[in-house]
């Protein structure tokens, strides 16, 4: 099996600067909280790379005989993105508006790609103490909300009468 840099050389003649690994893949997407994936129709050489100037990582799909970039997704430096292996040949991650999936042609390529991406990105950052305190505060506040029906009616009537002042 060729190494990622050798593999890129086989496809385009030379690896690009900052390139970390490559594999043949197709892109799928789905809205958050949905389970049915839809193909984007984009297929080609999936390149995972880093920008030495900014320290950010990116996924790109190169397609066609000229290997032009037809899709890109930038991962900001320090974002701590979770990259998961749903199946040996299908990897998923969350974008800003939806989840994306990569369907790989070869399970061994997919495994090597997964290990390289996870090592490069590191583990997702845990929530900060400020976020933990904020969530704890919200939990306590929500726990004090009356749950019986009479109290809810009385509260809504009170709010309605307060608005009429």
TrEMBL record:
It comes from the Eukaryota. Gene3D superfamilies: Pleckstrin-homology domain (PH domain)/Phosphotyrosine-binding domain (PTB). It holds the Pfam family WH1. Residues 1-124 form the WH1 domain. The lineage of its organism: Eukaryota, Fungi, Dikarya, Basidiomycota, Agaricomycotina. InterPro entries: PH-like_dom_sf, WH1/EVH1_dom. This is WH1 domain-containing protein.
């Amino acid at each position: 099996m060729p190494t990622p840099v050798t593999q890129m050389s086989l496809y385009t003649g030379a690896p690009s600067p900052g390139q970390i690994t490559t594999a043949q893949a197709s892109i799928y997407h789905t809205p958050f909280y949905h389970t049915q994936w839809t193909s984007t129709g984009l297929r080609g050489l999936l390149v995972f790379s880093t920008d030495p100037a900014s320290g950010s990582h990116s996924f790109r799909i190169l397609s066609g005989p000229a290997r032009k970039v037809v899709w890109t997704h930038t991962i900001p430096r320090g974002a701590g993105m979770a990259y998961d292996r749903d199946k040996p040949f299908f990897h998923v991650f969350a974008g800003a508006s939806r989840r994306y999936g990569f369907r790989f042609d070869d399970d061994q390529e997919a495994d090597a790609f997964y290990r390289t991406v996870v090592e490069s990105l590191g583990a997702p950052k845990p929530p900060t103490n400020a976020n933990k305190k904020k969530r704890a505060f919200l939990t306590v506040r929500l726990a004090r909300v009356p749950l019986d029906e009479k109290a809810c009616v009385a509260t809504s009537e009170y709010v309605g009468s307060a608005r009429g002042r």
